[in-house]
Predict the structure.
Amino acid sequence: MADSAVIVVLPPIDPDQVEIGRRLRRLREGRGIAAPDLARAMRLGLTALRMAEQGRARLTSSQLYAATLALRIPMRLFFEGEIETVPTWPASL
């Protein structure tokens, strides 16, 4: 019996989504929110959130809006300028 290899193909990294995903992760970590909690607030599976944070999944505007509510940030932080990840108030879900 021959050994068979398993090939796992991940979705390609979307250059347009990489920075949004990085910002999402930095903001989430800066606010001290666990990935499963943010995924639940965004109505995503944990795997989908992880893929989005890596730029491998595109988030809809409603998912980004849900993230802004959970993180208590303005939407523009996903798209412009440098972000400050130090929490200014306690975030709770």
